[in-house]
Amino acid sequence: MSTLEAPCAGRFLFASALGLLAIAGPAMAQTPHVMVTPEELVWQPSSRVPGLLTAVAEGDPTKAGPFVLMLKLGDGAWIPPHWHNVDKRLVIVRGTLRMGMGDRLEEATTRPLSAGGVAVVPAGSRHYEGASGETLVALLATGPFSTTFVEPGKP
Description:
It is a single chain. This protein is an alpha+beta fold. It has two domains: 1-31; 38-149, Jelly Rolls. Helix content is 16%, strand content 43%. The chain has one helix and nine strands, in the order αβββββββββ. Strands 1, 2, 3, 4, 5, 6, 7, 8 and 9 form a nine-stranded antiparallel β-sheet that branches. The longest helix is centred in the first third of the chain and has 25 residues, at 5-29.
């Protein structure tokens, strides 16, 4: 490239970047600021897992994009072996979540995660969770999100 071409290329890249910012800027500015108090959460009982309540705090797990789903498990509640189509991240807010890996629920092999603990579960990884004491968990992922149970008829 000659020294005469370099400034033109630089101006083109700079102009292109400004154009992208002009297009993306308004869209980015329209993203809403989300704050949800515990009292504003709308809890729904799970039709498949006794002792599990869920509440969407942000986003929509059935649509493309990030979301936050709150999980409330009663003491002794278990979510049987399952997997998801996308990676999920769990942050334990209160209580103790017991997690295990595999196709069979084996309480003795679970690892307890207390408040402040974090778990990252890759898509397709078979796992299960249970609660010691009432347990509150934030699940963060990107939708669309699905859960497939190892044994579809259970629970």
